[in-house]
Amino acid sequence: MTVIDSVRIVLVEPAGERNIGSIARVMRNMGLTKLVIVNPHCNPLSEEAKVMAVHGVEVLEKAKIVNSIPSALQGCQRAIATTARERGIPTPLEKPRDVMGWLLEENINSALVFGPEDRGLSNQELSYAQRFVCIPSNPEYPSLNLAQAVGVCAYELYQEFLNQNQKTVIDTETEKQDDLADLKALEGYYQHLESVLLQVNYLYPHTAKATMEKIKRIVNRSDLKTQELAMLRGMLRQVEWGIKSHTLED
């Protein structure tokens, strides 16, 4: 399970079957699977909802129906509620893009809460969340359809999920690069290898340079790590000890 799978979409008293179906579809588009519906005022599994859901029907079928917001948030450590307007009670409003990463942390369950189509969330309903989102829109007509609001937030959530994954890949690659043998150490190894190969007559002075170039190309393709290079240098030292011992015995 990925961190985005731990985020649930909570719809409070939705009344539009087509809206619920459209939300299931966009959730599927954005990698979200957990839908919780509080006191729906329609049938979330109606034929109309399923038609709008298209390939998100499975999200509808697995949706959890509860009778209160606390029930919908059971097991969650973090919740963001959405609102389209300022409130009398001081309520810092944030943009979806700025806050979605807060929901995407390992080993936590979180929720995005959306209000009914006709009124949005009340102050009491908002109080169940810790942070609040308002989607920037045209001030002359700021109100978004419920499915559109979920779509915008789900998109921003998924983009943050992708960004975090990309950062993890970059960090992992950086760690790998940090562990690679540096060029100075590689050059020391090549000089050491050439010396040993000359001693055992694998290389000859007049062809050593050309042959070593071929060997370097082969070795360079392997992206040797520091520890691997140390092991190879240890093998060369053992060969040198063997040569020396054999010479002394003779």
UniProtKB/TrEMBL annotation:
EC numbers on record: 2.1.1.200
Keywords: Cytoplasm, Methyltransferase, S-adenosyl-L-methionine, Transferase, tRNA processing
Pfam families with a match to the protein in the record: SpoU_methylase (PF00588)
InterPro entries given in the database record: Alpha/beta_knot_MTases (IPR029028), RNA_MeTrfase_TrmJ/LasT (IPR004384), SpoU_MeTrfase (IPR001537), tRNA_m1G_MTases_N (IPR029026)
One of the record's GO cellular component terms: cytosol
Localization, UniProt: Cytoplasm
Record-level GO BP terms: tRNA nucleoside ribose methylation
tRNA/rRNA methyltransferase SpoU type domain sequence ranges: 7-155
Catalytic activity: cytidine(32) in tRNA + S-adenosyl-L-methionine = 2'-O-methylcytidine(32) in tRNA + S-adenosyl-L-homocysteine + H(+); uridine(32) in tRNA + S-adenosyl-L-methionine = 2'-O-methyluridine(32) in tRNA + S-adenosyl-L-homocysteine + H(+)
Any GO molecular function: RNA binding
NCBIfam families according to UniProt: rRNA_methyl_1
Family: Belongs to the class IV-like SAM-binding methyltransferase superfamily. RNA methyltransferase TrmH family.
Oligomeric form and interacting partners: Homodimer.
Purpose: Catalyzes the formation of 2'O-methylated cytidine (Cm32) or 2'O-methylated uridine (Um32) at position 32 in tRNA.
Protein name in the entry: tRNA (cytidine/uridine-2'-O-)-methyltransferase TrmJ
Gene: trmJ
